[in-house]
Amino acid sequence: MRVEEVVEEVAVKLLRLAVVRLPSDVKRALEQAWREEENPIGKAHLKNIVENIRLAEELNRPICQDTGTITFYIRAGADFKGLNRVEPSLRRAVERATYEIPLRPNAVNPFTQENSGNNVGRLLPYVKWKIVSGEHLEITAFPKGGGSENTCTLAMLSPSAGVEGLKRFVLESVLKAGGMPCPPTIIGVGVGGGADISMNLAKEALLRPLDEPNPDPTIASLEEQLYREVNALGIGPMGLGGKFTTLAVKVNYAHRHPASYPVAVAFQCWAARRASARIHPDGSVEYLTHRVEEA
Amino acid sequence: MSRTFRLRTPLSEREVRRLKAGDVVYLSGRVVTARDAAHKRMLNLIEAGRPLPINLHGLPIYHCGPLVRKENGRWTVLAAGPTTSMRMEPFESTVIERLGVRMVIGKGGMGAKTANAMAKFGAVYGAFTGGAAVLAARNITRVIDVEWLNLGIPEALWVLEVKDFGPLIVALDSHGNNLFREVNEKAWERYRSALQGRGVQKPKR
Questions:
Q1: Would residue A125 count as lying in a domain?
Q2: Which of the residues B39, B57, B63, B175 is marked catalytic?
Q3: ipTM surpassing 0.95, yes or no?
Q4: Which helix (H) or strand (E) holds B170?
Q5: Domain count for chain B
Q6: How many angstroms separate the CA of residue A162 from the nearest CA in chain B?
């Protein structure tokens, strides 16, 4: 098969895996929350969530009707042949996936309000590139729902507010979001860089497995603190009370301008859909987030 | 202790007034989906004094943009969980008042304007688990009709037949109770007292 065909096939498969089957770290965290939740309404919601995950797998159907807007994160080996053909393949994959899986058509022109009908539109699917050394191509499909996207926040804090200001901004964002982003959520926090950089970092933090804290122990302890403080608010599953408002808080940072302290908060609903695969130069494919029999 | 009700649509004011926040409801009968664009169009029609294509009197409105498939000319619903209800907050009170809607189903809760209309005209808000879309679709037995498809599939009015659709948690009742507001107010209180405990100045809400 040619490069474009392999990329297209893999991308369709990744979209299917992502929307039908949650990664095992997310499933484990939700099952644990269900066992440990004490609020009866919160526990009932978590029971529905766990049952829904099982049912989606059994019936091979998308977990949530909102199959999201689609971003692909690419880690491209500098020596991978055919990089210029990757984006057109991804667009074809999204169009095919929309009919084959199916996905809900979610690409709307912001001026005419017309739905393209196939999830492809101007700059959609969105593709984020990172060039690494090597000959392989790593693709992550990241379809993200609108409910949790709508509660994302960005603040250009005063540097004097510092880490205390950051924590307050995160907690107030969670309070304002309430039940809207479908808690228990995963919360990505991006700090530093600039307005765009901090939000990018917050989004990328959502890709990190839940059981993987930040390798920097200081940041890992901030993540742990935020996790405890968010859950102490008692907003709970779906905003109707309980001790699981978030499954994990993930922090990423960049150095900042002396005058700026950007903080971005990206919410991910409990249906944290992501799937990754690595395509090797010989055309073989390795699935990284899901166990795939015929891979 | 929460009480469980099995109700059939259309709902009467009496049935709805009996429901209290925290009760659990399972619905059978007809339910109509409507989201942002459909609500906007409904309001335009109400203002123009023109009829809607569907009589919503006594029916629940479901804040949902379903994932559907058309096979052999027939629609099937594959996944149909709720969408965030707050986006419909500017419109819902008028819909309840003028169209006689008795129940709103969604996620995340609604604000004071809707709560007031629910108390005044007799309607409740039923919360379904966000994202539990396959679970929801399992209790949708058939697509009866669809209107306003030109708004796009997620935004159209889908008339669905449901059987034992739920559990729906009554989160806003017709007596002024709002579970979402209660949880949120308590959460803000906890936040403020935690800040005071750390000696930080009280934040503005």
A1: yes
A2: B39
A3: no
A4: strand B157-172
A5: 1
A6: 13
